[in-house]
Amino acid sequence: xxxxxQVDVVVIGLxxxxxxxxxRLAEAxxxxxxxxxxxxxxxxxxxxxxxxxxxxxxxxxxxxxxRVAGLAGTAQVQPDWxxxxxxxxxxxxxxxxxxxxxDRFTGKGGRFVRxxxxxxxxxxxxxxEQTFLASRALVIATGTAAVVPxxxxxxxxxxxxxxxxxxxxxxxxxxxxxxGGAIGLELSQALARFGVAVTIIEGSDRVLAMEEPExxxxxxxALAEDNIKIHPGVRAQHVEHSGDLFTVTLSxxxxxxxxxxxxxTGRAARLDGLGLDSVGIDPSARFLTTDEWMRAGDQIWAxxxxxxxxxxxxxxxxxxxxxxxxxxxQGGPPADFHARPRVTFTDPEIGAVGLTExxxxxxxxxxGTGYAxxxxxxxxxxxxxxxxxxxxxxxxxSRGVLxxxxxxxxxxxxxxxxxxxxxxxxxxxxxxxxxxxxxxxxHRAIGDALRQL
Length: 453
What we know:
The protein is α/β, with parallel strands linked by helices. The protein folds into three domains: 5-41 and 98-146 and 268-327, FAD/NAD(P)-binding domain, CATH 3.50.50.60; 162-265, FAD/NAD(P)-binding domain; 341-451, Enolase-like, domain 1, CATH 3.30.390. The protein is 30% helix and 26% strand. The chain has helices at 16-27, 43-47, 49-66, 82-91, 99-106, 162-167, 182-192, 213-225, 313-327, 357-362, 378-383, 412-424, 429-433, 445-451, and strands at 5-12, 32-36, 111-114, 117-121, 124-127, 130-140, 144-146, 174-178, 197-202, 229-232, 236-242, 245-250, 255-258, 260-263, 267-269, 295-297, 300-302, 341-344, 349-354, 367-373, 390-396, 401-409. The strands form five sheets. Strands 1, 2, 3, 4, 5, 6, 16 and 17 form an eight-stranded mixed β-sheet that branches. A five-stranded antiparallel β-sheet has the order 18-19-22-21-20, sandwiched between helices. It has a four-stranded parallel β-sheet with strand order 10-9-8-14, covered by helices on one side. The longest helix is centred in the first third of the chain and has 18 residues, at 49-66.
């Protein structure tokens, strides 16, 4: 393998978490090599968080315009996908080019290497003909990739993942979506509001199955208003593609058809071919297990989606901060995931933090719940059309604190902020109940839910 070049740190994968860790370590004066085989910045800026929210912003504007009739007169709405496609390409720095991101990293003093990395021993990383030896830290931040299930006939067809859906410049007339999780639901609703006939196939008995049942009911009702068909409790068993049509045979014997097929059945860590066995890590692991300092092994840290703690940009940034502080010996608090926030950006938005009621009961918590309907609140009444939502709080009655909460509504993700602080800081319920909640706001419904406790 030849002589290895000695450096302080090697970061494999420059998605959100990897870029944050590599940049900060370089700014701290360490010699840092950052390795990425696709685009610096990762999924979020190019095919995830940002472009999909541009799609959602446009689709929500259409929905709001259609609500004018119930509020302020009349409005004619003519959907046009072209501005969305144009905005996405502009945001992705001229059609998926990462020069700005690369320059951002090297401007902090880091060294960028394009290619696939392979671990060949403790601290030893090979990229093509180059070999680096990290004397201080190895950070693995290779992210995740869309899972393509082994459905008969699917392989070899021109199916979409989130990437193709984001990159499309023209919309299909119809779309079949495999998966009723956050990604599938967000893309389904956005495209439906631009006139695409959407059908969702979900193996669980409800969409958004990892969240509260009330969240599933709220979203399902909203999707129905957008003429989206949902088939819960069934799975795709066979896929055929002929001409411009996909035909999907379901486990109940029925079939659905669509011009395009979107696979949104989850994501898995990119660990194949990384050489994990050379550093004592199980190469068959689905995700990398870490301790509270994001350590995955001796002088090895892992951050971002690859850890399995949640495929969210905010978690990747949080984990990178913990790892950087540990590598630099700066101290501070270790990682704590008990108040993990998450938002599904449908309309209404579904914000959640901590445990669901089911998770709390399974954990043996002395559960108490409080619920408030958003349409029944003053702000919900004022808002009128598009006011669906609720606040649900999950309490540990023995400790007198919240362990989880859901905020669903037009500003569900924003209202979640107060609930996240309450769960993270274990604010006593008595203090929350004594809080003055501004009127008339959506977040005032938090007080209504707390009174139910």
